[in-house]
Amino acid sequence: MSDVLIRGLSDDELARIESEATRLGLTRDEYLRRWFTPDALRPLPPARPVAGADFAKFAPLADRGLMRDAWS
Fold this sequence. Notes:
There is one protein chain. This protein has 72 residues and is an all-alpha fold. The protein has a domain at 8-44. It has helices at 11-23, 28-41, 52-56, 64-70. The longest helix has 14 residues, at 28-41. The model has no long low-confidence stretch (mean pLDDT 88). InterPro entries: Arc_rbn_hlx_hlx. This is Ribbon-helix-helix protein, CopG family. It comes from Nocardioides turkmenicus.
C-alpha cells in the first residue's frame, strides 16, 4: 500500500482533522482514508458524442502565425 504526503496543511487544519477523527473514534489515517475513498470510487460522468462545436475549438490551430509563435 502506498503512502501519501500532504504538504502545506496549517496547524489549524491538522488540528481540525485530528479533532474530527477523534470525535468519530478513528485514527487520523483512517479518517482521511474514508474521506478520500468516496471521491476515488465515484464514477466518471458518461461520455457524450463529439459535436461540431467541439471541433470549432481547435480552429485557431489552423492559424500558421499562431502556431509559429507558439513553437518559437
